[in-house]
C-alpha cells in the first residue's frame, strides 16, 4: 500500500464522495451495545435515502434488542482504507409499519422484501449526527464531514 502518494481531499470533496458511496454501497457494519450484554457488531444490507440509513434485521435479533434498549449506534462502510464512519440514533419500525417509500426502495435494491416474510422483521433507520471520512493517515486531519447532523462545506 502506497499511502504517501495520497493527496488529501478537502471537506467538500470528502462529503461528495461519502454521499456517493452511501448511495452505491450494499453492506454496512452496524455496532450496537446492550447495558447487560456489551457490544455487538454485524454487517447488514442498507439503503441510503439521502438523509438516513435504512437497514433490516430480525425483530428478535441481538441488534434489534440492542437498539431498542440503547439507540446510539455506529455504522461503518466495509473499506478499511477509504473509511466512512457514521454515528447516530436508531429508530425502529416493525415491517408492518415501516413507511412505504424506503421499504419499497429497499426491496427494489436487494430483490428481497422483509414485509412479505413470515418471521417478524424490524427496519432500523439511522439519521447520522456525525460522519467521518478519510483515506490513509494523510487525511486524518479534517476527517469530520458532518457535525450535529449538518454536512460541513
Describe the overall structure.
With 153 residues, the chain is α+β, with helices and mostly antiparallel strands. It contains three helices and eight strands. The chain has a six-stranded antiparallel β-barrel with strand order 1-2-3-6-5-4. Strand 7 and strand 8 form a beta hairpin. The mean pLDDT is 95.
In the sheet with the most strands, the strands line up as 1-2-3-6-5-4
What is the overall number of helices? 3
* Shape label: globular
Distance between the termini: 29 Å
Structural class: alpha+beta
Say what oligomer this is: single chain
Mean of residue pLDDT values: 95
Low-confidence stretches: none
Task: State Rg.
Answer: 16 Å
- Beta-strand percent range: 35-45%
Sheet of most strands: 6 strands, antiparallel, barrel
The helix fraction, in percent, is: 10-25%
Order of helices and strands: HEEEHEEHEEE
> How many beta-strand segments?
8
What's the gist of this structure?
Helices cover 22% and strands 42% of the residues.
Keywords:
153 residues, alpha+beta, 6-stranded antiparallel β-barrel, 8 strands, 42% strand
Amino acid at each position: 500500500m502506497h499511502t504517501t502518494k495520497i493527496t488529501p481531499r478537502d471537506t467538500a470533496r470528502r462529503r461528495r464522495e461519502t454521499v456517493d458511496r452511501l448511495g452505491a454501497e450494499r453492506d454496512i457494519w452496524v455496532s450496537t451495545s446492550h447495558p447487560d450484554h456489551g457490544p455487538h457488531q454485524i454487517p447488514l444490507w442498507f439503503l441510503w435515502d439521502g438523509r438516513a440509513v435504512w437497514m433490516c434485521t430480525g425483530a428478535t435479533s441481538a441488534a434489534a434488542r440492542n437498539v431498542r434498549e440503547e439507540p446510539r449506534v455506529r455504522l461503518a462502510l466495509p473499506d478499511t482504507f477509504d473509511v466512512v464512519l457514521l454515528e447516530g440514533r436508531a429508530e425502529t419500525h416493525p415491517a408492518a409499519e415501516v413507511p412505504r417509500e424506503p421499504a419499497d426502495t429497499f426491496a427494489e435494491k436487494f430483490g428481497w422484501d422483509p414485509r412479505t416474510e413470515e418471521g417478524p422483521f424490524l427496519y432500523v433507520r439511522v439519521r447520522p449526527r456525525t460522519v467521518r471520512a478519510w483515506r490513509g493517515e494523510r487525511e486524518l486531519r479534517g476527517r469530520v464531514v458532518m457535525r450535529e447532523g449538518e454536512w460541513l462545506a
